[in-house]
């Protein structure tokens, strides 16, 4: 048993971009970790880094309370870990792999009922449960099917398409028989989307020809929006009748100081009888098993592809998180404890 463990807490709220002062690391005595009867002590093995974390740093009303500054809480994060110790009412066994919201820490105490026990089937990886079979994949699945109502033959446009959510949306769209147009921020990402994922066409929003390339797509039936801002506005000007816009995320606005820039082209929603709707994946918790079953099958038979961007060491989580906002991540951003 170690004498101390490391955790990372919010040091100050960043007004704009996350910087080296945003978080600080602490060494805490292991003896502080005492489990109650219904709790488990988890030794964390993997962490997920997600754009939503930027929102959790804002002291604002949202779907979860803001992370507090200082020692009361570690930085919130989903993760994987193994049960290291447990209270007397806990049924799970020591050594069981679990997922949960463990935070940026080497050890976390949580209630047994706030963990998901995982037995990784053959052909899958433990880290799939932080990607396609975790928040990213579930977001893609319910956002595209429930909010987007995608149908065969329709035109689907996906922004943030090379990322964890976006690449899964592209694949679910193709499986549904849609024509899939992917928007991403580099030539390499576009090549991966066309060659590996098999999208109809990928276009680079940093290219000087982006506006023309975008217009060449024609009109769209579903726009799955991960980025907001100008790209959302452009998509609003290219709607087919009865189009659906899935507001999944708006990463271009997460680091904004003050209010994000508004949209202009919303009158097309009226003329094209279109819908625009936001959603939060946690509202689908009852239906996660349906999505996990479908996506597990695809991962196991190789028809669903995934990519990981792995960072080594908890201490590197604060400097890795900004990669999501610069486009420096190539795949699902995760931290392995070493
Ligand atoms: N509603 C929900 O319940 C829910 C749940 C999970 C995630 N989300 C949202 O889903 C989106 C994707 O999350 P993820 O975990 O899959 O992240 P990700 O796509 O793996 O990584 C973020 C990507 O966003 C792109 N990006 C960053 N800044 C941008 C900008 N200004 N304009 C355009 N693209 C930009 C970058 O790719 P490029 O290199 O292509 O620029 C970056 O790689 C986020 O908006 C997130 O908040 C929503």
UniProtKB/TrEMBL annotation:
This is Enoyl reductase (ER) domain-containing protein. It comes from the Eukaryota. The keyword Protein biosynthesis does not apply. One of its GO terms (molecular function) is oxidoreductase activity, acting on the CH-CH group of donors, NAD or NADP as acceptor. SUPFAM superfamilies: GroES-like, NAD(P)-binding Rossmann-fold domains. Signal peptide: none annotated. Residues 16-335 form the Enoyl reductase (ER) domain. Keywords: Oxidoreductase.
């Amino acid at each position: 048993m170690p004498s101390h463990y490391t955790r990372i807490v919010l040091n100050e709220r960043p007004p704009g971009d996350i910087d080296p002062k945003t978080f600080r690391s602490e060494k805490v005595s292991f003896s502080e970790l005492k489990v109650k009867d219904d709790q488990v002590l988890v030794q964390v093995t993997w962490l997920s880094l997600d754009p939503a974390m930027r929102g959790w740093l804002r002291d604002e009303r949202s779907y979860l309370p803001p992370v507090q500054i200082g020692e009361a809480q570690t930085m919130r994060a989903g993760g994987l870990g193994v049960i290291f110790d447990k209270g007397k009412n806990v049924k799970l066994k020591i050594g069981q792999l679990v997922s949960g919201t463990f935070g940026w820490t080497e050890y976390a105490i949580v209630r047994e009922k706030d963990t998901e026990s995982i037995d990784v089937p053959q052909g899958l990886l433990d880290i799939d449960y932080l990607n396609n079979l975790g928040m990213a994949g579930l977001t893609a699945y319910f956002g595209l099917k429930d909010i987007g109502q995608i149908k065969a033959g329709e035109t689907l446009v996906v922004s943030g398409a090379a990322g964890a959510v976006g690449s899964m949306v592209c694949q679910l769209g193709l499986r549904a028989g849609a024509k899939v147009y992917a928007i991403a921020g580099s030539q390499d990402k576009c090549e991966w989307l066309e060659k590996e994922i098999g999208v109809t066409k990928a276009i680079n929003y940093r290219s000087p020809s982006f506006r023309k390339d975008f217009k060449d797509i024609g009109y769209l039936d579903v726009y799955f929006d991960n980025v907001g801002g100008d790209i959302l506005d452009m998509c609003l000007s290219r709607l087919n009748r009865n189009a659906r816009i899935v507001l999944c995320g708006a990463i271009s606005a997460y680091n904004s100081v003050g209010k994000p820039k508004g949209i202009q082209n919303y009158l097309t929603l009226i003329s094209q009888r279109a819908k625009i709707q936001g959603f939060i994946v946690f509202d689908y918790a009852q239906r996660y098993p349906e999505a996990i079953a479908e996506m597990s099958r695809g991962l196991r038979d190789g028809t669903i592809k995934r990519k990981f961007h792995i960072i080594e060491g908890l201490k590197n989580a604060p400097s890795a998180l900004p990669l999501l906002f610069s486009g420096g991540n190539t795949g699902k951003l995760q931290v392995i404890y070493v």
